[in-house]
Each structure stands twice: as C-alpha cells, then as structure tokens.
C-alpha cells in the first residue's frame, strides 16, 4: 500500500472501532463498495479540479462542477443516476456540459453540449471504457461500474481491507482481464483498484488519496488514476462537496444545457 | 627500419612466436567479453551497430533535436506490415484475413525484449495503428457521434469485413495510411520503444504469420528500422564469408603467378594476421562494428598483399640456391624497405585523413585501416624474411627466375611479352596519350558535376531482396513508409495557443493538401487538422463540414468531443498540450536523400511563397531527414579529407624523391584515377553513398603506391642508362611486370565481393577492382608519356654532366 492509502487508513481509523463482523460474501462487499463510492445521499454536488499529467510532466487542467441525482422509483433506488458535468475552465471550453443518464442494466446515455457550436451530441462509444474528457479516467471510472457486471471473489482479508478480485462477465466489453480492489472494511470505500491484463501485468491503478467525512458520508476528496503503460496520470481533487441539496429532475434535461443551473453550483 | 627485417630473418623463431602470441592475445582479449560476459569487466563485448543515426555524433544538433522532438510528440520508429490478398475479391477485407490481422496485432502487443540487464524494449501497444486498436468515428444515429473500436472482434462474415473497410475509407486519418486507397490492402504500424528490436519483432511476427492458414494473403514486413537491423545480421555473414573468400581468390592468383603454394602461404598468413589484429584492436578499443568498420578487412587485405607481392617478386628474381639465403633476403629487403615504408605511410595518411570527416563511423574506419596498414607492414617486413629463411632448400627447388635460365633474360610469359610490345608505345605516342588523358579528365569532370549524392538504407539490399520487394509494394499501395516530421512553432514569447487558431489550422491544412498535390514523393501529410475536420464533419453528419471550425472555442470543443474516444492521446502526437508547437507527419514514398532534399526545398519554398497567418519557425526531424543531414556533411567532409591527405601525400612523395616535380608526377595517376572513377559513377547514375565516398581514400593509398614504385625504378634505371629510350624499354621488363601482377592479383581478387547480397559490398568490390586497374594503367601508360615529354627537366639530377 502506498503513502496515500496509509493517510486514508489513519483518517478512517479515527471514525470508530474496527468492524465487529467479517463480511465473507464477495458480491455483497462489491455491492456495498459501489454504493459507498457512487450513491452517497440522494443527490449532491462537487467542484472538481482535474489535473491531467502526461509522462513528460506536462499538465492540463480542467475545472468542472458535477451535479448528481439518484433516481427514485416507488421509494427505492433503481440504481439509475443522472450527472450534470459543467466545465468552468479552461475558457475555451467554458459552459460545455457533459450530461449523463446512467442505466446500470443498459448502456448509459451521454450527451455533450458544445456552446461554441450550440450543438448537443450524444456520445456513443460502444463501451464505457473510453476516455473521460481526455483524462486517464475512463468514463466508467467516474460514473461507476456496476457490481453486477463482474464476478467477485474475496482474495484476501487483512485487518483493514477486503481484497477483491473481479473478473468481467463479458470480457468483450472491457480491456482488462481482471481487477483487484482494496476495500476498506469499515467504510466500504475502494481505496485502491489495480487493473490487470491477461498476462497478469498491472497497467492501470486507481488510488483514493484523501478521504473526508462529509455530512456523515465517507467521501473521497482526492483520487488519482495512473496509466502505467504510457506513464500518464490524472488527479481529481474534490471540493465544496454537499449532499442532499434537493436537485430537481428537470435540471438533467436538454433545456438546462444552454442555461446551466448556477444556483446549485455553490461557491465560485 | 631495415634492422627489423634483418633481425626477423636472423631470429625467425622468436618473431614467429611473437607474432603468433600477439595475434592470439589480442583475439582472446577481444572475444573474452562476448564469450564470458563479466569475466573481464574493463572490456566491452563485441557490439554490432546498424543505427544510421550514429553516422552523426550523439551530440549532433539534428540528433539531439530529433530525440527531443520525438519525446515531445510521443513519436516512435515503427515496423510496418503490409497485408495484401489478390485472390479474394475484397482483398484482405474478408473474415479470415481480418481475423489473422487481429491475431497478429494482439500478439504484437505482447512483444517485449530484454535489452540490458533489467531493461526492456517493447512494441508500444497503445500507439499501434491497426483495425483493432483504433476508433471508428462516425455519426451513429441522429445526433450521436460514435467512437467505437473499429474492429473490437474479428468479423464473422465477409459482409461484416466489407463494412469495416467502408468505415475505414471514410476516415481521412486512416485512408492511405492504414487502408490502401482502393480499399483492398491493409498496413499495420507497430511502434517500437527502441528501434534496435525491430529485427526481432519482424522475425517474431513472421513466425506467427507462417502459422496462418493460406488464404492467399501476402504479408510484407518493412520499415526503415527493419532494414537497418537486418543489415546488422548480414554484416556478420559478409565479414565471415566474403572477406575470407576474397582472400582465397587472391591466394589463387598468387599461386598462378609464383607457383609454390608453400612460399606464398606466408603472404596469406600475414594478411590474415593483420586483419585479425586490427579487428581485435577495434573491438578492444570499445568501438562498435558499424557498416563501415565491417569493411575494414576488405580494405586491409589488398594493402597487405600489395607489399607481399613486391617482396615475392624481388625474391623470385634474385633467388638462387648458390648464394647465401640470408644475403639474398637482406638484399631484397634493402631494395624494397624504402618504397614500402613510404607507400605504407602514404596509404596510412590516405585513410587517416578520413578522421577529418564529421562522421564518427567513417573516422573509426579511417583510423583503424591506417592502423591496419602499419600492422600489415610490420607482419610483411618481419614474417616474410623470417619465413623465407626457415624454408628448406627442397621447397625452393626450381623457384625463381634465375633457375629457369632463359627466363632470366627475357620473361616469355604472355604478360611479359605483352608489356614488352605495348609498353614503349606509351613513350612514343606521348602527346596523344596526354591529350586523351585530358579528354578523360574533361569527361570525368562532367560526370562529377552530375554525380548524385544519395543514400537509402533500404537500397543496401538487392532489388530482389524481400525487404526491397515489401518496400516497393507498400509504397505503391499506401501513402508511404518513410516518415519525416516537420515541427512548426510560433516564435512569439507569449503563450497564445497558435495551433488552436482557425486561421493557422486552415493554413496548415491547405499547405498539406497543396504539397500532396505538388509532389510525387509526398504520399500524405497528417496533422491536427485531420482530427479536427473529421470530428467536425461527424458532429454535423455532413461531408461538407469536413473543415476547420470558425472559432477557437469551436476547435477546442471539437477536440473535447474527440477526447471522449478510446485514443484521446493521438492529439498529442500532432500538437503539444499548450498548443504552442505542432508537428506534421510526412509519409514519403521514398527514403532517398535526394527525395527528402526535394521535399525540404518544396516545403521551404511553400512557406516563403505563402506566408502563414503568423510567423512560424519550421524544423525537420525523423530518420529520413537525419540521413539527409549526414549525407550532406559527408560530401563536404570527404572533400576536405581528400584534399587534406592529397597535400600530405604530395609532401611525402616530394620528400621521398627529394623533388617537387617527381612528387607531383607521383600524384598524377592518382588524380586521374579518382577523377575517372567518380566521373564514371556520375555518368552511370550510381549514387554517391558512403562506401563510394570512402573509396577515394583507397585510391589515394593504392594508386600512389604504383606510381611511387614506377617512378623510383625509372629514376634508378635512368641513372644507369643515361638515356630515355633504353630506360623505357627496361621499365617494361621486371618493374612493370611487378606492377601488373599486383594489379591483377588485387584487382581480380576482389571480384568475389560481387557475389555478396548487400549492395555496398558489391559496390566496394567493383570499385576497388576498377581503381586498381585504372591506377595501374595510369601509372604504366600516362607516366612514361609524361616523362617522355618532360624528360629534360625531370632527369636533370640523374644526368651525369659531361
């Protein structure tokens, strides 16, 4: 484990006594981890600073605001979610919006609104493992991969982590052979995820580098995705995080693409 | 220096042991690090270097910039695989072939080779250009732009395969690069982290291809790195087979002239010892074996044999069992040591002059041939006398001219009779010969003016070689396999993202289109505008929208759209993330320097004629361009080296003859030979490449040799005869026979090189032979003619005043 994970360990261990019961059901661990990482609260917003650093150390920055809302059907969450990703900077992409309707059981709908062309276009990528706006994160890393898409096995349990090995049910839709996640026993947050090729070589690595508890929810506030093959990495730093801010459904429609709901964006 | 030969003749055993031990120790030391790595940590193992970048010193500006810019734009050298299928109506776009292409690409992704302990060089999987590794960009349905893998899995039917073809043809980035314009053939590009593994990659790919079921598809593997690397493995063969073969040929000819295998065996051994010691020294000095240094043996052999022939000839003429052998041997060496020492010096100077060129492999070559010349001299003047002394009388029965009494007076061999009849003719028709020579110089001058300085590593292979065939086919079907890169940068100090400006992108797009139309060599130019225009077209689902958007934000947002694809980083192979620097990829159909030079000029002119909307600095890089740079440096470098050594050799010959006019005389056959050879190269339309260039040094060494021997003997005879006519007649007895034997042995001895399957060796073979024959002829014909005309002033010192 790296230093960042250690920092996380210290932060998390401050929250309370260790788990009294050991979870042995891999699928349950995976589902809980997915829920903790992507479904905290009913809705929320965050300001995200994205630093894309290539192997030469050249940095490109993006400043975005993400609004998220979970879909409620008959008082229960279906797993469907909506995201409104608003670009603040750099200036030539300001006001660009990335809109997502996530369907865990089907292909997600993704739109990009390009203000300079006043054009809304759906992005069809065949899979969800294309780049998220040029970063080392895949689209799926940001929207959340459903626990149901993989077969999970508990590979090891340490004092702090469940170590899960997850193998895709449909290998044709992904580029990895399997991935290993270190899920914190107490909070169920995935702290590190390593992606492997069929020859067991690790080529991507996600690390949660900072975690805070916000409104009672353990929340990752800084995360890095490393592309070990090409030497690049992207760091997302979250700030101004708020949960349960009462977003209405219509925000996540084409109407708001041209008139972003700035009242929900928080501080400037 | 004569004491050396005398000592050798006296203490022959000691000299044999010393020479053997010397050669053995050097060889052992040279081979040790290769055979037992690590045993002698201060020695470097034998390394083959085929990287033409090394034609320039590692700190040469163009190389340093090339390395930097390749890093900046993430550009790699690659192996290209062309796939064609002429038996299938859809070409390679059928289910079976595409499945094989996918298998091949999946396999290529895994290729990795340990280079030095712990470091690996591999195929850069994420940058491979193949159907299974790139995105199809198209409008999927109304309002949706799709970035799906072009060929995630192999198609199951030929119809699906045709669909993949149609998609590829619609994407300008792929057309002409990955798919042939007629939609029948595929080219796959496998980038390498280090180009030294290209030969291994090509071999591994070929092995897999050989296991494919025969579908009628043909796979051609090429790319500059493959050619360069294969050249390295061929070099071993050349050194191990061609050079010894040439030596055997020389041996056969010596046997023909002197009979007596046992006697001439020593000259073979002396030549071999010289080659082995020189090569061992080369390896020990830590130098790599480059294309130039691999030719060192081929250059040392004739030089070593040359002196041997003089000694053998003289010994042959003087030997008689009646006299004391040591006396004869000492006499032979006394006759010859001075001209031999001087010819050794002049030859060494000729080669050492190559150190004035700015090209490291040529410098190493020059230095070590010069060293080899001294080594050969040493072995010749010690081993030959020692060996003659140790031969039993029986072995020398009926050896030598004096033992066949008739021959002692007049050599009746065909060569002797020919020289006797034809020789004096040169003295009698002096004026016509001089006029003819001047005409030859004029003819050569015209040829030299038209000489084309050109090199292309692919052309080091014969036309029928599979690499040449693959290269031809790929460059016929596709935009071109030779890459040259044009780096454009704004000289403005403020970062204002010039390459995100519509006017700049439009200018570059138009320039690319104009250049493609204007030049036959430029197959295709790729740049950022390709991505922008293609995505913009798909945003509007309208072929007419294939253009650069009107505003900076529009361009930025079009690119942002593309960044949601599977290969967003392709953008950064065309532009830096700060949009301050851009690069254009030129695919050229030929790697000839002349073609690259033409492209460089064309682009320069274009930028001058059509000034860009803002000032842009331009700079070329890439292997094809580096080749051009070192070629240019070589031409001027060689000229400088040749002129420099010409002057030094002139001083040496003037010192030897103690006369400037005789010194100049000695240089004339050489000047004529060099002029004629390069004139002929120009007239024949042969390329003046590196091997051709260094041959001027060989001419310098050898042609002067003949002239020195000829002139020295002429003066000596004149001193005795005191008249030109009898001197001329006598010159065409023994002295010209020795020169002619030399010409024939060494000249013909190098013809086996024509059997080599690498063109530079063939060139060297044919040119060495021509140089020797020409230099010999020039010495035997032009020198007597010139002496006839200028005999008065020339012989003023020889004449005994009444």
Write structural notes for this entry.
The complex is a heterodimer of chains A (268) and B (802). Chain A is mainly beta. Chain A has a single domain (3-14, 21-258), classed as outer membrane lipoprotein receptor (LolB), chain A. Chain A has helices at residues 3-13, 26-38, 139-143, 254-258, and strands spanning 43-53, 59-73, 76-89, 97-102, 109-114, 119-124, 150-157, 161-168, 178-184, 190-196, 202-214, 217-227, 232-243. The longest helix of chain A is centred in the first third of the chain and has 13 residues, at 26-38. The radius of gyration of chain A is 18 Å and the shape is globular. Mean pLDDT of chain A is 87; it is low at 12-20. Chain B is built from 25 helices and 13 strands. Chain B is of the alpha+beta class. Chain B is elongated and about 110 Å long. Chain B folds into 3 domains: 2-37 and 229-457 and 628-794, Up-down Bundle (Multidrug efflux transporter AcrB transmembrane fold); 74-222, no CATH class; 492-614, no CATH class. The chains are: A mainly beta (268), B alpha+beta (802). Strand 6 (119-124) of chain A pairs parallel with strand 5 (144-149) of chain B, so a sheet runs across the interface.
SSE map:
The complex is a heterodimer of chains A (268) and B (802).
Chain A: H1 3-13, H2 26-38, E1 43-53, E2 59-73, E3 76-89, E4 97-102, E5 109-114, E6 119-124, H3 139-143, E7 150-157, E8 161-168, E9 178-184, E10 190-196, E11 202-214, E12 217-227, E13 232-243, H4 254-258
Antiparallel strand pairs in A: 1-2, 1-13, 2-3, 3-4, 4-5, 5-6, 7-8, 8-9, 9-10, 10-11, 11-12, 12-13
Chain B: H1 2-10, H2 12-35, H3 61-72, E1 77-85, H4 95-110, E2 112-114, E3 120-122, E4 135-139, E5 144-149, H5 158-170, E6 186-192, H6 198-211, E7 217-222, H7 224-258, H8 261-284, H9 296-318, H10 325-352, H11 360-390, H12 405-409, H13 414-428, H14 430-449, E8 452-453, H15 466-477, E9 482-490, H16 502-518, E10 522-526, H17 528-540, H18 552-562, E11 581-588, H19 593-609, E12 616-621, H20 623-657, H21 660-683, E13 687-688, H22 690-721, H23 724-731, H24 734-749, H25 759-794
Parallel strand pairs in B: 8-13
Antiparallel strand pairs in B: 1-6, 1-7, 2-3, 4-5, 9-11, 9-12, 10-11
Helix pairs in contact in B: 1-2, 1-10, 1-11, 2-8, 2-11, 4-6, 7-8, 7-9, 7-24, 8-9, 8-11, 9-10, 9-11, 9-24, 10-11, 10-20, 10-22, 13-23, 13-25, 14-21, 14-25, 17-18, 19-20, 20-21, 20-22, 21-22, 21-25, 22-23, 22-25, 24-25
